[in-house]
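Same chain as my last thread, 100 residues:
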Amino acid sequence: MSQEMDVIEHLLEIEREASKTLVTAQTQADEKIAAARTQADGQFKKLYADSVKEIDEKAQLAKKEITANRQSSLESYKDSLSSVEMDLDAFNSLLESYIS
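reply #2:
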């Protein structure tokens, strides 16, 4: 009977060691997963920030170009208006025809 108890006790000790090993392995795996997640989050945030910066720079450049084109078109229109000679007599007679 004592021999059987020794065998059972030995098997229980092996079971305890296996349980400890499993807990240690799980803890190490959790640490590795957490480290990998932290690294991946860091990479994502950097790539995201770089992408946002690039898009913002392109938007600012496009905005400047649009503003310059608008200003150029407005100046061109003003120049075309100032080069038109006013015919006040024709304008006055047109108004007279509408009023009368």
